[in-house]
Amino acid sequence: MATLLSDRGEITTTGVRLNPADAEAVTGWTLKPEGMCRDEICVPLPAAMTTDGVDVLAFWRLLGNPVVSEGETHMLGTAAAARQSALDGLRAPDFALPDLDGAVHRLSDLRGRKVFLTTWASW
């Protein structure tokens, strides 16, 4: 038995070659005669990738996405470009905190620079 995990959910099957419906459920891509398609985009696949079901791991790697495997559990990750694109529009709210000498620093004073924020709680 193999377990495939993605941001769309989890599926347990007998292997990594899935029927078209299961492949769509875990990847969001639909198998069509022209290849795997999502909206107007279609990715042609070699015949070996669709013999006896869709080789989901090979397809996911073909897209340039990461696959992490541990035994029979496989995680279909999001590509770095997609993760970066999602983070580009995020902004932390402005706040001000004093340093150990009492000087107040504002996050907005650091806009345009990379900032690492970390928090800690005792609970």
What does this structure look like?
It is a single chain. The protein has helices at 20-27, 56-62, 80-88, and strands at residues 2-6, 9-13, 17-18, 30-32, 35-38, 41-43, 54-55, 67-70, 73-76, 96-98, 104-106. By secondary structure, the chain is an alpha+beta fold. It has a domain at 2-81. Strands 2-1-9-8 form a four-stranded mixed β-sheet. It has a three-stranded antiparallel β-sheet with strand order 4-5-6. The relative contact order is 0.13.
Largest sheet: spatial strand order: 2-1-9-8
Strand fraction equals 25-35%
Q: Describe the biggest sheet?
A: 4 strands, mixed
Number of alpha- plus pi-helical segments: 3
Kindly list the characteristics that best describe this protein:
four-stranded mixed β-sheet; 11 strands; alpha+beta; 123 residues; 20% helix; 31% strand; three-stranded antiparallel β-sheet
